[in-house]
Amino acid sequence: MTIAVYAGTFDPITNGHLDVATRAAKLFDILYIGVYDSPGGTRAASSGSAVAGRGLLFSTAERVKLVKEATKNIPNIKVVSFTGLVVDFANKMDAQTIVRGLRAVTDFEREFETALMNKKLCPDLEVICLMASLQYQFLSSSLLKEVASLGGDINGMVPDHVRKALVARLGGK
C-alpha cells in the first residue's frame, strides 16, 4: 500500500491546496493531510517544525474541520492534526512519501532545501513536488487572508464553506 502525507498549516485551505491534494490522492492509496497543530501563534515550516511567525487565523480544530469538509468526497484522503517534524509525522502514518506543492521558482528553492534536510533526517522518505495548476500559481493562504480582510472578492480561490468562514472571521465579501 502506498501512503503519502501532505502537510501544512492550511490557514485556510485554498483551491490551490485542494488541487495538489486531489492530484496526489490519485497517485497514492492513502493521502494523509496533516494540519499542523501550532499552539501559541507559531506556524509550521515546510519541514514541519514550529517557527515563530505570524499568528494563525483559525484554530487547529477549525482548520481540520475546514479541510475535512473540503476533501469529504475524496475517499482515500484522511485529515489529521500533527505536531513536530513532517518526517516524524510521515513515519507515524507509515508513509513512504511527502507531497509538496510548487507555485514558482521561489517555492522551488525553499522546497529543495527542505527536501534535502528531510532526506538527511529520514533517508527512506521520498519527496514528490506537484506543480501548481496555472490558475492557482499566485494563490497563498497569507495573500488570500489579506485580500479577504480588506473586503476583496475571494470567490473561486477557496471552497465556499472556507469563504464563508473567512467572511465570518474577517468580514468582507
How would you characterize the overall build of this protein?
The chain has 173 residues and is of the alpha/beta class. The protein has a single domain, classed as HUPs (Rossmann fold). 38% of the residues lie in helices and 21% in strands. The chain contains six helices and seven strands. The strands form two sheets. It has a five-stranded parallel sheet, sandwiched between helices. A two-stranded antiparallel ribbon has the order 3-4. Strand 6, helix 4 (105-121) and strand 7 form a beta-alpha-beta unit. The longest helix is centred in the middle third of the chain and has 17 residues, at 105-121.
Task: Please describe the topology of this protein.
Elements lengths: L2 E6 L6 H11 L4 E7 L5 E3 L5 E3 L7 H11 L6 E6 L3 H7 L4 E6 L2 H17 L4 E6 L9 H9 L10 H11 L3
Parallel strand pairs: 1-2, 1-6, 2-5, 6-7
Antiparallel strand pairs: 3-4
Q: Keyphrases for this structure?
A:
single chain; 173 residues; alpha/beta; five-stranded parallel beta sheet; 6 helices; 7 strands; globular
Number of helices: 6
Stretches with pLDDT under 50, minimum 5 residues: 41-53
CATH class: Alpha Beta
Indicate the overall shape: globular
Strand content: 15-25%
Oligomer: single chain
Kindly name the structural category. Answer: alpha/beta
Termini Cα gap: 43 Å
Q: State the major sheet.
A: 5 strands, parallel
Averaged pLDDT: 89
Strand sequence of the main sheet, in spatial order? 5-2-1-6-7
Q: Give the name of the CATH superfamily.
A: HUPs
Order of helices and strands: EHEEEHEHEHEHH
State the helical fraction.
25-40%
The strand count comes to 7
> What's the CATH topology label?
Rossmann fold
Question: Radius of gyration over alpha carbons?
Answer: 15 Å
CATH architecture: 3-Layer(aba) Sandwich
How many domain regions? Answer: 1
